[in-house]
Amino acid sequence: MTETLAETEPRSPVLRLSPGDNIVVAIREIPAGTALPTEGVTANHDVPQGHKVATRPIQAGAPILKFETVIGYAAHDIAAGDWLHSHNIKFDAVEKDYAFARDYVPTEILPPEQRATFQGIKRANGKVGTRNYIGLFVTVNCSATVARKIANYFDEERMEDWPNVDGVIPFIHESGCGMELTGEPMDLLRRTLAGYIRHPNMVGAVVCSLGCERNNLVQFFEEQSLAEGKMLHTVTMQHVGGTAQAIKDGKAAVRTMLDEANKIEREPCSAEHITIGMQCGGSDGLSGLTANPALGRAADILIRNGGTAILSETPEIFGVEHLLTRRARSEAVGRKLVERMDWWLEYTKGKDTQINGVVSPGNNAGGLANVLEKSLGGSKKGGTTGLMEVYRYAEPVVEKGFVFMDTPGFDPVSATGQIAGGANLICFTTGRGSCFGSYPSPTIKLASNTPMFTKMVEDMDINCGEIVDGTKTLDEMGEDIFQHILRIASGEKSKSEALGVGEEEFAPWPIGVTG
Asked: What's the burial of 339, exposed, middle or buried (CB within 10 Å: 0-12/13-18/19+)?
């Protein structure tokens, strides 16, 4: 496939993405009757920004091609110049050739002395953090108020005595009881909590429990090989005498850690210690043309520097998963991805979910006709390097390079899994304007278009709309994103971080039966 964004005439109101496509994409609103000289057609309808225009007649049932990939089929005969969207694009099965590992090429990693560096926080276990937080965790929602009150006590004014500690943050979830004692739901919850407690951005933690919950504190610690110590404390409400005493004991536990937590100093560290979780939310028709492929360019640069990039949101690669299995380093890795996709197809069978065709109203209004088109754009965050491994939700990511983690498409749940797996930064693309943030790993938000970036500049970090504006190429934007990653990893605050967004976005996957 040939991407021609940088070569397109800047004044043209449309982009041709690949020579074999039978559509082009509107980069601004196009009134009916507008000539499209680069395509030799005239728009037959008003076409919103990010939506598609047919460049030649398409017979009913024929495939609609974007990046020379099928995103659906003509619901009826379509004339050249027609507006193409969900009203005339039919969602249907696409034949896929997984071609496991056929296109895998080992990535040339830069020698250590040539790799980019950032100002990181070295931990005793060899990991490197980008932030320095103390966390308040709960085994069960019944202890959520205790954890929140302890964390809230250590406000900005009180924390002035410990300037090297980024904050004391509560991580509250709605689970922990009324669930199976064993099995995937409990495993997933415990894996997520342990991943955060051990995270390189977390210098210390207090785990609060009620005492009678099914996610038993002692069993949780034993199963996850956690042990109380100087920087990990526990408080059990029923053991200490209730809510008030638990809050008092929790505050005391945090105080004992603050002086030690404050001793850190940032120092030069190789970019190989950066792991980014890649997310997209509130996508539009330009996300797959600007922000997503630009992030893919940045991921490629990071990987060449020895780092790691995690692609996720399994239901949002449906229809293009074969483009990833071809890049897998082995058939075994590729089959792991197919197995997770098969799980999702069975799990969502008969349900009105995105994987079964219909995207969210916001995605649809932004120009995405169905999940196939959304997946095509979303997968471009993954860049071009080999797929090195596939992980289940919140599993520790130990493989370097480009990897995939199985998560839902819901951004807070997906990013929570990536952070639990070790992501010390999140890169989040958006076309409609998501205001997502996260702790303890900061989120960098990438806008797909200039109008939204300008309107929501207090939330957006980078304007990838410059690509369609003609002021930057994809490669230039990818380098800009990579340099921004290094700055945020070194301690500069992202927009969401400066706004304090992220506490409520901790959301372990609530899979499983309750009762």
From this structure: exposed
Distance separating alpha carbons of residues 173 and 190, to the nearest angstrom: 12
Report the C-alpha gap between 89 and 500 in whole angstroms.
Answer: 41
Q: Is the dihedral of CA 409, 415, 420, 422 positive or negative?
A: positive
pLDDT (tens digit, 9 = 90+) per residue, 210-252?
Answer: 999 999 999 999 999 999 999 999 999 999 999 999 999 999 9
Look up residue 360 and give its two tokens: 């969210």
Q: What's the CA gap between 85 and 443, in Å, rounded?
A: 32
Query: What CA–CA distances, in Å, run from 59 to 73, 78, 87, 180, 469?
Result: 9, 6, 15, 53, 33
Instruction: Look at residue 253 and give its three-state secondary structure.
Output: helix
Amino acid at 204: G
The widest CA-to-CA distance across the chain, in whole angstroms, is 78
320-330: pLDDT as tens digits = 999 999 999 99
To which residue do tokens 């797929």 refer?
387
- For the record, the structure tokens of 181 come out as 């004692």
- The percent helix, strand, coil of the chain (3-state, each to 5) is 35, 20, 45
* pTM exceeds 0.85 for this model: yes
The rounded distance, in Å, linking the Cα atoms of 282 and 363 is 6
Residue 229 DSSP class = B
The token pair at 295 is: 């992030």
In terms of Cα–Cα distance, which of 487, 507, 482 is closest to 497?
A: 487
Helix pair angle (243-261, 144-153), 10° resolution:
50
Task: Compute the Cα dihedral for 326, 331, 332, 338 and give only its sign.
Answer: positive
Residues listed for the chain: 515
pLDDT tens-digit map of 397-453: 999 999 999 999 999 999 999 999 999 999 999 999 999 999 999 999 999 999 999
Cβ-defined contacts of 255-261 (< 8 Å, 24+): 256/230, 257/134, 257/203, 257/204, 257/230, 257/231, 257/233, 258/134, 258/161, 258/162, 258/165, 259/162, 260/203, 260/204, 260/230, 260/231, 261/132, 261/134, 261/162, 261/164, 261/165, 261/203, 261/204, 261/231
